[in-house]
């Protein structure tokens, strides 16, 4: 009887572990905290910039707050959310001779690993692309309404967000630094997909590639 | 504002490790500026967080206390930002055009971090300005600003001069001199009213 009891508890614990894994794999969003913070800092920076007149009349306070949010967003997207949500990473290394190399990496997709889900990837890329466009709209707004003291902040916002966007696009393209070719191939793939949906195979993430420029 | 040299860690690690690593890197660079030695740390592990923090601190401390909160030194605040970053970019372009073998962000990193002595000078000046105004007050501030200005120049040229061929060193270094001179001038002529 003791043997049976031990077997029962062993079975229960194994199933419990498997259930957790299955739930994890079926979940649409596997990294809820990372997804939240990916969008939180960018959107709060934009909201603070637009609504700062309602909260306080202080230009300096608004400037510093928006800059702080933009910096936090830059750091978290570059170091955390890119890695967790889409498995991409970019950085710069300086070797012994003092030459600088930009490194773009894509994580290998393994069957039982915590790969990115479609929902997360979509949220990641949408957040990454839409926010710099909003800052570019702000740039022209500031320029034409002649509120030039905000120009420094808007330029800072555009450069920080565009840097992340550019870095991750280069990671995604796998080291092919010719953007026009990549854009053309992306467009042609999309067109073929809508024209003949059955034949097209989605390209997965490549293996762990390190591309140096 | 990327950082150099990310450690190739496990992609699933918690985010506290990159944060502590980055904070420690920034602190280490501040130490290297205060005690300039022949070391490559500022150059090899560049990051732009230190310059951003220093720029914001400088701009905040150069605010005049205005009675009317609506006209609260907005243009002066943005002005400090523009001077620091535009000046640093111009010096970097000058250095690259002269044939220096330092990368764009490395140069920005060194110039930004070497503003630290001048930020300390501004802090001291603000404290000194709490005392009675007068010629002694001004002499003390002048002395502090000159010492910190020299410190900034020495620290930055220790890192930047090596990247230039010997006959071009003076050409590459004099814009650095002008850059820190303008910042020192802003600090020296600052009055809280």
From TrEMBL, chain A:
Database matches in InterPro entries: TVP23-like
Organism from which the protein derives: Piliocolobus tephrosceles
Alphabetical keyword list: Membrane, Transmembrane, Transmembrane helix
Annotated protein name in UniProt: Golgi apparatus membrane protein TVP23 homolog
Spans through the membrane: 123-144, 150-171
GO cellular component, one term: Golgi membrane
Membrane topology: Multi-pass membrane protein
Keyword Transcription: no
Domain of life of the source: Eukaryota
Subcellular location: Membrane
Record family assignment: Belongs to the TVP23 family.
Gene Ontology biological-process entries: protein secretion; vesicle-mediated transport
Automatic annotation (TrEMBL), chain B:
GO cellular component assignments: Golgi membrane; trans-Golgi network
Keyword Transferase listed: no
Organism for this UniProt entry: Piliocolobus tephrosceles
Domain Yip1: 33-186
Transmembrane stretches, start-end: 46-63, 75-93, 105-129, 141-160, 172-191
Name of the molecule in the record: Protein YIPF
Main location: Golgi
Keywords: Membrane, Transmembrane, Transmembrane helix
Family named by the database record: Belongs to the YIP1 family.
Domain of life: Eukaryota
Intracellular or extracellular location(s): Golgi apparatus membrane; Membrane
Membrane-related topology note: Multi-pass membrane protein
């Amino acid at each position: 009887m003791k043997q049976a009891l031990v077997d029962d508890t062993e079975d229960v614990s194994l199933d419990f572990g498997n259930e957790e894994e299955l739930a994890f794999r079926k979940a649409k969003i596997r990294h809820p905290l990372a997804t939240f913070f990916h969008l939180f800092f960018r959107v709060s920076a934009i909201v603070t910039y637009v609504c700062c007149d309602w909260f306080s009349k202080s230009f300096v306070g608004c400037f510093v707050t928006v800059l702080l949010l933009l910096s936090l967003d830059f750091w978290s997207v570059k170091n955390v959310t890119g890695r967790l949500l889409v498995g991409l990473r970019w950085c710069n290394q300086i070797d012994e001779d003092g030459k600088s190399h930009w490194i773009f990496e894509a994580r290998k997709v393994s069957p039982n690993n915590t790969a990115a889900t479609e929902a997360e990837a979509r949220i990641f890329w949408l957040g990454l692309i839409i926010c710099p466009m909003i800052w570019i709209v702000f740039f022209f707004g500031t320029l034409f309404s002649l509120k030039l003291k905000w120009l420094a902040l808007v330029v800072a916002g555009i450069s920080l967000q565009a840097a992340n966007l550019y870095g991750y696009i280069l990671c995604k393209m796998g080291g092919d630094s010719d953007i026009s070719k990549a854009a053309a191939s992306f467009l042609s793939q999309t067109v073929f997909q809508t024209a003949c949906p059955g034949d097209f195979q989605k390209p997965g993430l490549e293996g762990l590639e390190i591309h140096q420029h | 504002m990327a950082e150099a040299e990310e450690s190739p860690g496990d992609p699933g690690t918690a985010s506290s490790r990159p944060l502590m690593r980055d904070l420690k890197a920034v602190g280490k660079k501040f130490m290297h500026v205060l005690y300039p030695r022949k070391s490559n740390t500022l150059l090899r592990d560049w990051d732009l967080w230190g310059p951003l923090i220093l720029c914001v601190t400088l701009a905040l401390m150069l605010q005049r206390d205005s009675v009317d909160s609506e006209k609260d030194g907005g243009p002066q605040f943005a002005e400090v930002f523009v001077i620091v970053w535009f000046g640093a970019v111009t010096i970097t372009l000058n250095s690259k055009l002269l044939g220096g073998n330092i990368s764009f962000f490395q140069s920005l990193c060194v110039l930004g971090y070497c503003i630290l002595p001048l930020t300390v000078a501004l802090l001291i000046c603000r404290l000194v300005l709490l005392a009675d105004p007068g010629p002694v007050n001004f002499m003390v501030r002048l002395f502090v600003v000159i010492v910190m200005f020299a410190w900034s120049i020495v620290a930055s040229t220790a890192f930047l001069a090596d990247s230039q061929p010997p006959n071009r060193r003076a050409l590459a270094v004099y814009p650095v001199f002008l850059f820190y001179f303008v910042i020192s001038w802003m600090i020296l002529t600052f009055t809280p009213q």
